[in-house]
Amino acid sequence: MSFATMKGAELYLEACKLVGVVPVSYFLRNMEEPYMNLNHHGLGPQGAKAIAIALVSNTTITHLELEDNWILAEGVMCLVQMLRENCYIQELNISNNHIGTEGAEAISRMFLDNISSLRGNYRVKELDLSHNEFSEKGGEHLGQMLANNEALEFLNLSWNHLRMKGAVALGAGLRVNGTLKILDLSWNGFGNEGALALGEALKLNNILVQLDISSNHINNEGAGKLAKGLEVNGNLKILKLSHNPLTVEGAIALVTSIRKNPKSKMEEINISNVLVNGSFLKLLDVVCQVHPELDVIYGEVRGFISKKPEQRPDPMTLIQVSSPDWLHSLSTQISNGHVNTTLYRKPTDRYAYLHASSFHPRHTTRSIWAFTHESLCSNTSVSLKGATGPSVALHT
Predict the structure, then answer these.
(1) Predicted model pTM
(2) What is the C-alpha separation between 136 and 165, in angstroms, rounded?
(3) What pLDDT is recorded for position 383?
(4) How big, in percent rounded to 5, are the helix, strand and coil portions of the chain?
């Protein structure tokens, strides 16, 4: 029987035999469900190949999770071939799979080869490619993908060492992209050069709604380049710029760009690590009067003294102050040479008392050991008796 006549579980089991891997029971049990979560299954490239073979004819799975499976570029190439035939998968997560530059090229080529035929059947709308070590060259390939894609609405490229020419290529691709709404580029190395490319893209792109470029080595100069794009952009609502080396000057440039743009739809600018000042707050107040929906998340305010924190008592002071009271309370419990043991533990007999004679110096721990030592040295028999307990004999 050929693969062409097989379907579902039978096809997957035969594919596993072909590539020499152990079938994943979870996959077999859930092949008819729309959501398939195979994260952290240790598939490897061969396991990914078996999955890809089984999914070529699958029509029920629309959301496929393959994070952290070490599928490498080899496994991605198998998935790419599958996606050319499968038009039902809409959400795909292949993050943290060590795909590298070669895998980025394979994904990009899928969009570039036979573009006209792909327009009708390629429907992946959400794609997570984060943590895949694409590097600069991989960014160049993905930039071409962005430029030619007509389906993606969400793309996560965070943590991929994207910088320099790769960052510029992604900016160029975003400039002409007509479908992407959410783009995560955080934790890369765009720098000011990449910020310039993104600023230019924002001048023309009126589809993107959310852009995350947190932690990208963008300083005040780069913020100024981005601001040029924000001055004319009429669709971006969320801009995340936290953990970049910005100061209040960069923050002012960003907010000023919104002030200059009456058609701006900006709702959130996140610069949560930036220390601002009074001038910035005054500017923000003016801008918010025109754009009341705007929320700028910033760090501390320079020169602002926060409310004095509530003073908590020093534990050692409390102990020293309360000790006499505690001793006084203890002394009131001692009457006629008796101490009520309920102060320390719940007794078997609620009226049980420990006689004060049990505190005789010879019965303290240190005295017992000293006394025992003396007796042992003299080769005698030692008898210890408590006030109410039995005698204990120590013999040498």
Answers:
(1) 0.76
(2) 6
(3) 42
(4) 45, 15, 40
| b/e 113-139 (16+ beta carbons within 10 angstroms → b) | eeeeebeeebebbebbbbbbbbbbbbb
What are the angstrom distances between the C-alpha of 83 and each of 14, 38, 55, 117, 124?
20, 17, 9, 13, 9
Q: Which of 305, 325, 256, 260 is nearest to 284 (CA)?
A: 256
Return the half-sphere exposure (C-beta side, CA atoms, 13 A cut-off) of residue 223.
29
Q: How far apart are CA 25 and CA 87, in angstroms?
A: 24
pLDDT digit string, tens, across residues 183-212: 999 999 999 999 999 999 999 999 999 999
> 43 and 75 in contact (C-beta within 8 Å)?
yes
* Beta carbons within 8 Å of 277's beta carbon, 6+ residues apart: 248, 301, 302, 303
The mean of the pLDDT values for the chain is: 84
DSSP 71-97: -HHHHHHHHHHHHHH-----EEE--SS
Is residue 47 classed exposed, middle or buried when 0-12, 13-18 and 19+ CB atoms within 10 A define those classes? buried
Tens digits of per-residue pLDDT, 151-160? 899 999 999 9
Identify the residue whose tokens are 């309360």: 322
Instruction: Sketch out the chain's domains with CATH numbers.
Output: 3-298 (3.80.10.10), 316-394 (no CATH)
Q: What angle do CA 193, 199, 201 make, to 5 degrees?
A: 110
pLDDT, position 320: 64
Q: What's the whole-number mean pLDDT along residues 1-6?
A: 57
Across 75-89, 230-244, 325-339, 350-364, least confident range: 350-364
| Continuous segment of H or E residues that includes residue 355 | strand 353-355
Query: Whole-angstrom Cα distance, residue 27 to residue 357?
Result: 76
Please name the amino acid found at residue 126: E
